[in-house]
Amino acid sequence: MCPICERPNYFPSDHHMVPRSRGGVATETICEDCHKAIHAHFTNKELEEKYHTPEALLEHEGFAKQIKFLSKQDPGGRSKTKKNKDRLRRE
Known about the structure:
Largest sheet: 2 strands, antiparallel
Number of domains: 1
Distance between the termini: 32 Å
Number of strands: 2
Order of helices and strands: EEHHHHH
Radius of gyration: 12 Å
Strand content: 5-15%
Structural class: alpha+beta
């Protein structure tokens, strides 16, 4: 099970909770859809400073809304995720 969307994890992906570029080493195995959604919503700086746990990620309103949608999708399929417009402004 993916610890973020709680669906069966057919396409596992190791996500560095603190990005490697920021010195992170610990990983969490999550589904590919959640991994794409994380990087669509957050910059590496935000992941390092605030959103480095599944609980913290789900506290973000926009991300939680995306995960709510993903949790209803077929875990065997793959969802497309575009970068969040707010994230593009912060880069």
